[in-house]
């Protein structure tokens, strides 16, 4: 599991530190939680509630009208939710950091 660590701001000028903190705060406000995705899977798995939460609107609508592919997609999703949450968070963080002009190296 590759997690991106917050940027070290100790050796930065004040204005640069402020910009990084704004970007980190913006990411924290849009970050998706794996726990919430699993809870939504348990409660609304057949109608794709967990996929709506993660922003997969097209697949969510397909699950809604097919009752989770008659349960097959719902069962498969239990194994894929964790990776999907990580991918969504990684993508959102990259977009936010790029918008602020911050290059972010992932921690392996």
Automatic annotation (TrEMBL):
Keywords: Membrane, Transmembrane, Transmembrane helix. The keyword Cell division does not apply. The keyword Secreted does not apply. It is found in: Membrane. GO terms for cellular component: membrane. Residues 32-79 form the TM2 domain. The chain crosses the membrane at residues 36-54, 60-82. Pfam families: TM2. It is a multi-pass membrane protein. InterPro entries: TM2, TM2D1-3-like. This is TM2 domain-containing protein.
